[in-house]
Amino acid sequence: MIDLRSDTVTKPTYAMRQAMAVAEVGDDVYREDQTVIELEETAAEILGKEAGLFVTSGTQGNQVAILTHTKRGQEVIVEADSHVFYYEVGAMAALAGLQTRPIAGMHGMMPLDEIAKAIRPENIHFPQTGLICLENTHNRSGGTILPLSYMQSVKELAVQHHLPVHLDGARLFNAVAATGISAAAYAATADSIQICLSKGLGAPIGSVLVGSRTFIEQARKWRKMLGGGMRQAGVIAAPGLIALTQMRDRLVEDHVRAKHLAKGLANIRGITVDVERVETNIVIADVSDSGLSTEEFLTVLEQCGVLATAFGGSLIRFVTHLDVTDDQIDDAIAAVAFATRMR
Ligand SMILES: *Cc1c(COP(=O)(O)O)cnc(C)c1O
């Protein structure tokens, strides 16, 4: 199977398996796991923050950050297609007691004037704005990159209003690989950042949340409440360290393959792809002109040995990653061409 559903499907490399076997471990709730400590410090250093916290998933990292930044009854400004709003099971409402203020974005960017208008002034009737969330790269927009200048402008606005900014940087290193801008430069525009080790970087499990030392101390307690206090977690932090230190540079290969896939798909009659918008490792194809529904389309693709994801309406998402070869991309293009001839 050529699995293009997500970059989360990668299997740990041989080096990662080896590192797991020999990892130094201890009880991490007692802060005695040296491998976890090394992972947290490494992530903090790369992102230019004081401290890091190893969490079980990107969702846990985002929600721990949101819980740490806010108080119940506050309002959080989020992009309407953001992961924290769209894909985190309503956690902001259910766990943090927050109201969300979704703003429609362009390629993942909420217009600055819309953010400014959404920030609540003091009024007896109003909830208090507690946080602004950004996402880079932006998943549902097709892995698009938020420009650094845009993030700096959002930060300036937030500072004017004494608001913290949380960056969902699940795929921040894809933005770094594509632009050459450092992760620390992006991270400087946010108070907290969540990065995924288990996507393009290829680790089997986990994310790291980074921020100031005080913030991470408080976040550690929220993580414990959510059941994320782990014991000999060095066995899963070890592949995370390899992901963070050795796998960032190879993300450009995924981007080249995604561009190749996008161009190939764009040449097929019945398929619409905005090739210009393929900035990282995600390709979104519209299959409406093929005459097939997304379900029918995905079924034919699967029969051809290709897996992709339904992405709402007539859209299908393909994601390139560590375990996909150039030949497999060509096979995937051929499978899509075959599917369009099915009707
Ligand atoms: C994948 C992803 C996450 C986290 O997902 P988990 O499955 O919880 O690890 C968060 N934000 C974005 C933008 C993502 O793409």
UniProtKB/TrEMBL annotation:
The modification N6-(pyridoxal phosphate)lysine is found at residue 199. Keywords: Lyase, Pyridoxal phosphate. One of its GO terms (molecular function) is L-allo-threonine aldolase activity. GO terms for cellular component: cytosol. Belongs to the threonine aldolase family. GO terms for biological process: glycine biosynthetic process; L-threonine catabolic process. This is Threonine aldolase. Residues 3-286 form the Aromatic amino acid beta-eliminating lyase/threonine aldolase domain. InterPro entries: ArAA_b-elim_lyase/Thr_aldolase, Low_specificity_L-TA-like, PyrdxlP-dep_Trfase, PyrdxlP-dep_Trfase_major, PyrdxlP-dep_Trfase_small. It comes from Sulfoacidibacillus thermotolerans. CDD domains: TA_like. Pfam families: Beta_elim_lyase. Its cofactor is pyridoxal 5'-phosphate.
